[in-house]
Amino acid sequence: MICLEVIVNGQRRTIAGASAAQSIETSVLTYPELQQSWLRVNGEVVSGDQPTADAEWLTMQLSVGDKVEVQIIETGNPVTPNLSRTDPTLAASDEIPFVCAFCGKDPQQTKGMVASHKAMICRDCICYLHEMITEDDGETD
């Protein structure tokens, strides 16, 4: 099977692949204003008659000077991804959990979830967003 091997600073971090993968992607996201960079290896997996699930092989913060290498390889032993879904309108009967679209927590890791027509958000993220908004309202220009 064709997979993506991801190496950071000479150390293999993952071999992303799955027989049911529709897509696998690797991205480096840099937020200059926040002085942060992130490496993500994710994709989509379809299993039988179930809706598409989000697949995650790796998410890690990078530092200035880090070297990221991505190589396309063929192997029968990829790393198994973490699977989840964020869209509650997709009827699924498998064991893949619905998770918060912001932080990725599943319902067992937080005190409740709120669903919209295309995503879910956990109570922790709602509280965090409320705190941010409340702090912003108190600031003067």
Question: What is the compact description of this entry?
Answer:
With 141 residues, this protein is mainly beta. The protein has one helix and nine strands. 11% of the residues lie in helices and 43% in strands.
Low-confidence stretches: none
Determine the number of helices (DSSP H or I, runs of at least 4 residues): 1
Helices and strands, in order, run as: EEEEEEEEEH
Computed structural class: mainly beta
Largest sheet: 4 strands, antiparallel
Q: Order of strands in the sheet with the most strands?
A: 3-4-5-7
Oligomeric state of this protein:
single chain
* C-alpha Rg (nearest Å): 18 Å
Number of strands: 9
Shape estimate: flat
Q: What is the helix fraction of residues, given as a range?
A: 10-25%
Q: Kindly estimate the percentage of residues that lie in beta strands according to DSSP.
A: 35-45%
Mean pLDDT: 90
Distance between the termini: 57 Å
Structure, explained:
By secondary structure, this protein is mainly beta. It has one helix and nine strands, in the order E-E-E-E-E-E-E-E-E-H. The strands form three sheets. Strands 3-4-5-7 form a four-stranded antiparallel β-sheet, with no helix packed on it. Strands 2-1-6 form a three-stranded antiparallel β-sheet, with no helix packed on it. A two-stranded antiparallel sheet has the order 8-9. The longest helix has 16 residues, at 123-138. The chain is flat.
Secondary structure topology:
Blueprint: E1 2-8, E2 11-16, E3 21-31, E4 36-45, E5 53-62, E6 68-74, E7 82-84, E8 113-115, E9 120-122, H1 123-138
Antiparallel strand pairs: 1-2, 1-6, 3-4, 4-5, 5-7, 8-9
